[in-house]
Amino acid sequence: MALALNIDSHSLLERLKLLGDLGRKDGILTRLAASDADKQGRDQLVEWLHGAGLEVQIDRIGNIFGIWNVESDIAPLMMGSHIDSVINAGIFDGCYGVLAGLSVIEALRASGLQPDRPIVVAAFTNEEGVRFAPDMMGSLVHAGGLDADQALATVGTDGTVLGEELARIGYAGTMEPGSIVPSAFLEAHIEQGPVLEAEGKLMGAVANLQGIFWQKITLSGVANHAGTTPTHLRVDAGLAAAKIITFLRKLTDRSNSVATVGTIRFGPNAINVIPDFAELTVDLRDPDKAVWETRQRDLDSFLQELEKSDGVRIRTEQLARFEPVVFDEGLVTMIEDSAKARQLSCRRMTSGAGHDAQMMSRLCPTAMIFVPSRAGISHNPLEHTEEASLIAGAQILLDTARKIVGSEG
Ligand code: HGY
Ligand code: MN
Ligand code: MN
Questions:
Q1: Tell me, what's the pLDDT at 372?
Q2: How far is the CA of 128 from the centre of ligand 2 (A)?
Q3: Quick one: pLDDT band at residue 3, thresholds 50, 70, 90?
Q4: For the chain, which residues make up each domain, given as ranges?
């Protein structure tokens, strides 16, 4: 019978609240990658990692690693997620996975149990991709999917350069990205969707994660007088942009696909001038690779039609394209068994959101643990998960980690 081991739930919950306040301005939490707010969160995390007795390494893309060095010829178990946020965010997205991973390491070290391999907790740079595209950038570079120098040269939505921003906040590390190739990667995360709560399930064993396609679309029309230009003589970039938004909803309605136009801007952006410029971004996802690829082709054909019908010129730029991934069956089963052993209801599920685990699955066996999100809300300050679920999820992470590193006691 394995020795029961528990995480320090009080410290996990306290740290989540504390980290959730770092970078807040006028009550709004926005901790965009490589910003001053991100630095505050990073500094606090590094302090906690040192306090846990871990070796701290920062790589060239600013990924942070807390390492429990153990003499072994087995590659490390890695757990982790991200601490950067979207705009006006909640406090659990990403942070939960990093702090749960840290609490697991602390519980194992306090128990005196000796793992059969090193254990690492990671906080990956720029998972959200809101300031610098693509998202999951730090873990993508770590997994070899994007060249580090190319990533560092990325220009953000605010015109800054990622590498310069990381240097400015003191997180342009020296370790070569990808230096730590784990034997397994586990990520605990809030579900950010409605499924677990709707089904009254406490845990999610994430078996797969949907494909993500991000594209910037720029439309050029003809600026003209809003009052004197008859409708049939207009070349209206704003109208064409609106047609894209409604097309995407029609394309994905009543399907497994989801499409979002989250940003849009017009030029010259004046109340009485027909816009000659529109720029928007598309986020298009589906768990089925073939369907996801068809949707992208459908969008492409629609844009070609739109150029003809509206006389606008359209340019597209791909910002991210990550295929659906299937996680490691063995690890998913381990997570299910850990939940069962603690009589926690659990169901297998797909992740609608992108995660660092999506990238790490290119390197090693990977899986995720989900805990319920109240009303399925996330990327919103109302994001909330009950304390009991946060603790239970971290416990499952600990129990699963113990199975992997042979510290069942
Ligand atoms: O976009 C996503 O799904 C993640 O939150 N970066
Ligand atoms: Mn996240
Ligand atoms: Mn997110």
A1: 98
A2: 7
A3: low
A4: 9-210+324-405, 212-322
The CB of 146 under 6 Å from ligand 1? The reply is no
Cβ-based neighbours of 157, under 8 Å, separated by 6 or more:
130, 131, 132
Third-level CATH fold of 212-322? Alpha-Beta Plaits (3.30.70)
Taking residues 368-392, what's their average pLDDT?
98
Q: Which residue has the tokens 């240097």?
A: 167
CA-nearest residue, atom 6 of ligand 1: 128
Evaluate: CB of 354 within 6 angstroms of ligand 1. Answer: yes
pTM of the model: 0.94
Q: Are 144 and 362 in contact (CB under 8 A)?
A: yes
- Fold (CATH) for 9-210+324-405: Aminopeptidase (3.40.630)
Longest dimension (CA), the chain: 83
- Between CA 88 and CA 278 the distance in angstroms is 25
Q: Is the CB of 134 under 6 A from ligand 1?
A: no
Q: How many helices (H) and strands (E) would you count in the chain?
A: 12, 17
State the pairing for strand pair 277-286/211-220: antiparallel
For 10-69, the pLDDT digits (tens) are 999 999 999 999 999 999 999 999 999 999 999 999 999 999 999 999 999 999 999 999
In whole angstroms, what is the distance from residue 276 CA to residue 239 CA? 10
Instruction: Tell me how far apart the terminal alpha carbons of the chain are, to the nearest angstrom.
Output: 8
Which ligand 1 atom lies nearest to the CA of residue 352? 3
From 136, 285, 350, the mutation candidate for ligand 1 (largest count of ligand atoms within 8 A of CB) is 136
The span from the CA of 378 to the CA of 121, in Å, is 23
The predicted structure's pLDDT at residue 137: 98
What is the Å distance from ligand 3's center to 309 Cα? 37
Q: What is the pLDDT of residues 140-169, one digit of tens each?
A: 999 999 999 999 999 999 999 999 999 999
Does residue 1 register a pLDDT over 70? no
| Contact of 277 with 267, CB cutoff 8 Å | yes
User: What CA–CA distance (Å, rounded) separates 85 from 23?
Assistant: 10
Q: How far apart are CA 302 and CA 105, in angstroms?
A: 51
Q: Do domains 9-210+324-405 and 212-322 have the same CATH topology?
A: no
138 CB under 6 A from ligand 1? Answer: no
Our mutation pick for probing the ligand 1 site, out of 139, 355, 359, counting the most ligand atoms within 8 A of Cβ, is 355
Asked if the bond preceding 134 is cis, omega within 30° of 0, the reply is: yes
